[in-house]
Specification:
Number of helices: 9
Number of domains: 2
Structural class: alpha+beta
Strand content: 5-15%
Shape: flat
Length: about 250
């Protein structure tokens, strides 16, 4: 009888110990989730930057090139085939692995619309014309409606690099080979008629960080677009019409 009681006590104690260990593990898991977010340098796969601007990843040199888009709908079939052949020729010239990153997100035109509206407001004040002012207000409404429509914002990046040769290689020689790879890409993009931009260190950090943070990527990209005036408004008079009422009022004033 004593052995039965002793065995039951041992089983109960074992269950209590198991439950306690589980609670400790769960508590450690909850505490680990509350840890502070790692620093940016720990989060991004970048060790640093060479004085030449090259990115250092796992002890190897990289370059990031931002590439613009082509409107295939505005091209003939012969032009599309020619671009494709030039793209193939560019890839065949590269001696080292490369990566093409395409990031597509829903576009946010908030900054662009604000810039367009401020530009039109300045123009209205400068000309002081009632008809032009009415046209500007109608155009603002049109832009606001268009900005609400779903559109895709895309960024294309080409990552080039060089692999160190077997037996080791001088840093200077690696950078020379990287520059040669970069020249192949730049000449190929120019032949295809594509705009491109070799990213500086700060732009590289933003591009990599934007890959992980969608909202920041959109706002950052359009902020830069507005600063570079690449989104300066292009107005087509056929897209916006001033109401007949405004025209009638203008005729009476005249």
């Amino acid at each position: 009888m004593k052995f039965i009681v002793l065995g039951a006590v041992l089983v109960v104690m074992l269950v209590i110990l198991i439950l306690r260990d589980r609670r400790k593990q769960q508590g450690q898991g909850r505490r680990s989730k509350r840890k502070v977010t790692p620093s940016l340098q720990e989060f991004l796969p970048i060790e640093g930057f060479h004085e030449s601007g090259a990115v250092i990843v796992n002890g190897r040199f990289r370059r990031l090139i931002r590439v613009g888009d082509l409107n295939l709908y505005a091209m003939s079939m012969d032009e599309i085939v020619a671009v494709r052949e030039r793209f193939k020729a560019m890839l065949m010239r590269l001696d080292n692995p490369f990566q093409i990153s395409v990031q597509a997100r829903r576009a946010n035109y908030t900054d662009f619309v604000a810039y367009a509206e401020s530009t039109m407001d300045d123009a209205v004040k400068a000309y002081d014309n009632p008809a032009f002012a009415a046209y500007a207000e109608a155009l603002k409404d049109y832009l606001r409606e268009e900005a609400l429509k779903p559109r895709t914002d895309r960024e294309n990046l080409i990552v080039i690099g060089v692999l160190p040769k077997v037996g080791g290689e001088d840093e200077k020689l690696q950078l020379e080979r990287l520059a040669r790879e970069q020249s192949f890409v730049e000449s190929g993009l120019s032949a295809m008629g594509l705009p491109y931009d070799v990213l500086e260190p700060v732009q590289v950090v933003e591009a990599v960080q934007n890959f992980w943070n969608r909202e920041r990527a959109v706002s950052q990209r359009y902020r830069d677009a507005v600063m570079r005036r690449t989104h300066a408004p292009r107005v087509d008079g056929l897209d916006v019409e001033v109401s007949d009422l405004v025209r009638t009022q203008e005729g009476k004033e005249a």
